[in-house]
């Protein structure tokens, strides 16, 4: 590296004059080239007058835009990459000596001699350009680095004027680059400048920048491991990235010619031996390539794509990553972030397998199956399952979708879904929060005046509900009557709607709404709690006429599986900038939402529903763990559901239906995956998918067979039995069967069989579509509402 010398203003002016002369020269003016001061100016560009600044531009290599990478929870499995410029910045020590030699030989052989501007190179280029058809540039590596930084900075600042000036073919631009280059050489060492150039230069088409990305793309190695022939190949590309990119087959012949030119230059400049050059030139370029795929965004993330899309929406919607969405997008695409997520590779794989084995993507029904899993007590979203393939844009093939049905609308999902009887465990939460026993005998009926669900000046967090004189008609499975009396316990075990209605009439809807909110409910479209959304505030919400995303209700079940601890679902665990600084991520805010005795008692009742002969959830019974905590649900013939948990391990919710036309394409009298049934419900289509995943996940995680055996211990204060029957003031008694509420042989109990032909059917008057759902119609109005298991 040459020793730096001082320089007078007159010599600086000579340099400027020489440059202007070279840029403007033509005809007789070429005689100026013989001016002695010009020939003596090669070392002149060393020290400019102090007024020349570097224009406030950050030339630190670490400030360059870099791609961000999203990883699974193991911090190793790559989910996706995001970039405007596909670049990975590396220090010069991590670039092989051959790569350094190759780029200097090709671009600037006097790089280690000049001081930012190579006047000899300029003269040579001028002579070539004037006296021959060959065009040469004459810019040094330093000048090229300056030009690239100015252009990148203008793009980052979204400044079209600066972009124009950074790339215009004018004397002003070249002079500006010269002056900054000289200043650069005063501030940075040669190796720092070479490092900057190697990281900013374009080394391929499709916005491939930087030597590390090029090394990985073309040869599947790191820049530090590049050999002679690989280095020469990459160094040759910068002259014409679109035409010399060797990954494009039609370019390979010319790319080989250019590579060999670099090899000759390396030999001439004594960076390699003749033998090394000849051996390298004799190697066909196609034999040296080991092309690696270039991925940008979620499109190429395979079965991780839906989770990837969820992560992207979380970043775009979170103020932790910038004040505006535009800032957050820029950070994602240019910030070089390392993003570690909550995705469990095993969970996501098994969810996808369960979804597609249950209903193949090409199934003639066109039904969607949507699955979401979350870890109780942490809020960590473990993965999604869906029988669709992800696309970021529109697709005519209905097996593809850009909508993540499993999440809220703001996170890329739809308007939510009614979930039928799978909401019922949370009615029991409300019941116990009101201080009631689950074995209390209730008078039940098939007709309720909505005013019976009034909150009676309830002082909780909910708004008041008063109801009207309108009657809500409600029945049990397949339009059956009711069981009178019946306890909340058996009402949940058997999934009886009429008992749920009686519970609501006793305690009022406000307590029910607050219980939903406490365990994590919010509307999928507005993100409001149920008590803040009048259109959902009706008695029929107790049998699932809500608009909720599968992930939200999975989280509600997670609260039951975590001893009453509710967490906000999270997708991110750690986000690190390229300089190692961590960015705060949205928190789960885990807290004790309901009393653990209530959670344990509800879990007990859910488990009984899977093992009792009259239980509605026998098809959910797990094989690989000792206890099953699950609840099925059916919404008319439009949506079938199942939710449940393995305590402390995983909570999962499954939903099946035709998202685009739930009413026009009912889940009834149809063959699903080649199996015909006149009546499908949650127990016959959603439950098997839930069981398949939960069993396989327990096996994959080596969960002991006794997992959960100590869970679901009911609190005695909620189990007391009374011989009296709680009546509903003003209720109209419909068709009833007066049997003891603890009887196991109840004529209306829905004993499961292999076909579940007696399973309850959830009917409400709402149509539901992922994009145009309208659940605002009061489903209790002048009709019968059925919700089944």
From TrEMBL:
UniProt feature, compositional bias: Low complexity: 735-789
Keywords: Carboxypeptidase, Cell shape, Cell wall biogenesis/degradation, Glycosyltransferase, Hydrolase, Multifunctional enzyme, Peptidoglycan synthesis, Protease, Transferase
Single GO term (MF): peptidoglycan glycosyltransferase activity
Record field: catalytic activity: [GlcNAc-(1->4)-Mur2Ac(oyl-L-Ala-gamma-D-Glu-L-Lys-D-Ala-D-Ala)](n)-di-trans,octa-cis-undecaprenyl diphosphate + beta-D-GlcNAc-(1->4)-Mur2Ac(oyl-L-Ala-gamma-D-Glu-L-Lys-D-Ala-D-Ala)-di-trans,octa-cis-undecaprenyl diphosphate = [GlcNAc-(1->4)-Mur2Ac(oyl-L-Ala-gamma-D-Glu-L-Lys-D-Ala-D-Ala)](n+1)-di-trans,octa-cis-undecaprenyl diphosphate + di-trans,octa-cis-undecaprenyl diphosphate + H(+); Preferential cleavage: (Ac)2-L-Lys-D-Ala-|-D-Ala. Also transpeptidation of peptidyl-alanyl moieties that are N-acyl substituents of D-alanine
Region (Disordered): 731-789
GO biological process: cell wall organization; peptidoglycan biosynthetic process; proteolysis; regulation of cell shape
InterPro entries: Beta-lactam/transpept-like, Glyco_trans_51, Glycosyltr_51/Transpeptidase, Lysozyme-like_dom_sf, PBP_transglycosylase
Domain Glycosyl transferase family, residue spans: 77-266
GO cellular component: outer membrane-bounded periplasmic space
Family statement drawn from the similarity comment of this UniProt entry: In the C-terminal section; belongs to the transpeptidase family.
Record protein name field: Carboxypeptidase
Organism from which the protein derives: Bifidobacterium ramosum
């Amino acid at each position: 590296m040459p020793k730096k010398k001082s320089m007078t203003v007159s010599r600086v002016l000579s340099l400027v004059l020489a440059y202007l002369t070279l840029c403007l020269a033509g005809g007789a003016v070429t005689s100026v080239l013989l001016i002695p001061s010009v020939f003596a100016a090669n070392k002149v560009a060393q020290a400019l007058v102090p007024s020349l600044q570097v224009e406030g531009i950050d030339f630190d290599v670490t400030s360059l835009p870099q791609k961000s990478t999203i990883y699974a929870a193991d911090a190793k499995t790559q989910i996706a990459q995001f970039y405007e410029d596909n670049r990975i910045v590396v220090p010069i020590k991590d670039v092989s000596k051959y790569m350094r030699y190759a780029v200097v030989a090709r671009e600037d052989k006097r790089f280690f001699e000049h001081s930012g501007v190579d006047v000899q190179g300029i003269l040579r280029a001028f002579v070539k350009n004037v006296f021959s058809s060959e065009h040469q540039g004459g810019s040094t590596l330093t000048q090229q680095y300056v030009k690239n930084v100015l252009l990148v900075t203008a793009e980052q600042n979204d400044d079209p004027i600066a972009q124009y000036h950074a790339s215009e073919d004018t004397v002003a631009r070249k002079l500006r680059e010269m002056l900054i280059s000289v200043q650069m050489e005063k501030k940075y060492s040669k190796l720092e400048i070479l490092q900057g150039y190697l990281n900013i230069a374009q080394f391929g088409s499709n916005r491939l920048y930087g030597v590390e990305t090029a090394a990985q793309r073309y040869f599947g190695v790191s820049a530090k491991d590049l050999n002679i022939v690989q280095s020469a190949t990459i160094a040759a590309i910068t002259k014409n990235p679109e035409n010399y990119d060797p990954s494009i087959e039609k370019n390979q012949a010319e790319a080989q010619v250019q590579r060999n030119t670099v090899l000759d230059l390396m030999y001439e400049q004594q960076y390699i031996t003749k033998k090394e050059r000849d051996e390298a030139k004799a190697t066909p370029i196609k034999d040296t390539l080991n092309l690696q795929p270039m991925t940008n965004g979620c499109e190429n993330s395979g079965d991780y794509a839906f989770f990837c899309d969820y992560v992207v929406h979380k970043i775009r919607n979170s103020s932790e990553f910038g004040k505006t969405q535009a800032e957050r997008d820029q950070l994602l695409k240019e910030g070089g972030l390392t993003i570690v997520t909550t995705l469990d590779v095993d969970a996501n794989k098994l969810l996808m397998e369960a979804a597609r084995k249950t209903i193949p993507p090409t199934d003639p029904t066109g039904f969607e199956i949507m699955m979401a899993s979350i870890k109780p007590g942490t809020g960590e979203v473990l993965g999604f399952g869906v029988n669709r393939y992800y696309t970021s844009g529109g697709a005519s093939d209905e097996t593809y979708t850009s909508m993540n049905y499993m999440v809220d609308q703001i996170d890329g999902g739809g308007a939510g879904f009614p979930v039928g009887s799978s909401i019922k465990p949370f009615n029991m939460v409300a019941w116990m929060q009101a201080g009631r026993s689950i074995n209390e005998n209730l008078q039940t009926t098939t007709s309720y005046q909505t005013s019976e669900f009034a909150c009676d000046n309830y002082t909780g967090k909910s708004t008041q509900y008063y109801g009207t004189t309108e009657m809500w008609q409600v029945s049990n499975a397949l339009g059956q009557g009711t069981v009178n009396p019946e306890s909340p316990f058996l009402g949940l075990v058997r999934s009886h709607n009429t008992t749920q209605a009686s519970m609501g009439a006793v305690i009022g809807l406000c307590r029910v709404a607050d219980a939903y909110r406490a365990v994590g409910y919010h509307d999928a479209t507005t993100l409001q709690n149920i008590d803040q959304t009048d259109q959902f505030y009706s008695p029929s919400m107790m049998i699932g006429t809500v608009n909720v995303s599968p992930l939200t209700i999975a989280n509600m079940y997670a609260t039951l599986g975590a001893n009453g601890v509710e967490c906000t679902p999270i997708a991110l665990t750690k986000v690190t900038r390229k300089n190692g600084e961590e960015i705060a991520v949205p928190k789960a805010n885990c807290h004790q939402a309901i009393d653990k005795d209530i959670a344990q008692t509800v879990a007990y009742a859910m488990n009984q529903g899977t093992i009792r002969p009259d239980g509605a959830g026998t098809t959910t019974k797990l094989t690989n763990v000792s206890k099953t905590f699950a609840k099925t649900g059916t919404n008319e013939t439009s949506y079938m559901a199942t939710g449940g948990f393995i305590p402390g391990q995983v909570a999962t919710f499954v939903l099946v239906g035709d998202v685009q036309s739930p009413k026009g394409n009912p889940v009834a009298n149809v063959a699903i995956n080649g199996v015909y049934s006149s009546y499908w419900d949650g127990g016959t289509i959603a439950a098997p998918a839930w069981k398949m995943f939960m069993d396989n996940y327990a096996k994959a995680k080596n969960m002991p067979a006794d997992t959960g055996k100590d869970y679901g211990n009911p609190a005695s204060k909620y189990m007391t039995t009374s011989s009296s029957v709680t009546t509903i003031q003003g209720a109209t008694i419909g068709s009833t069967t007066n049997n003891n509420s603890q009887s196991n042989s109840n004529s209306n109990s829905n004993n499961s069989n292999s076909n579940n032909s007696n399973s309850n059917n959830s009917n409400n008057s709402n149509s539901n579509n992922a994009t145009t759902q309208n659940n605002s119609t009061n489903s209790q109005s002048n009709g019968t509402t059925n919700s089944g298991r």
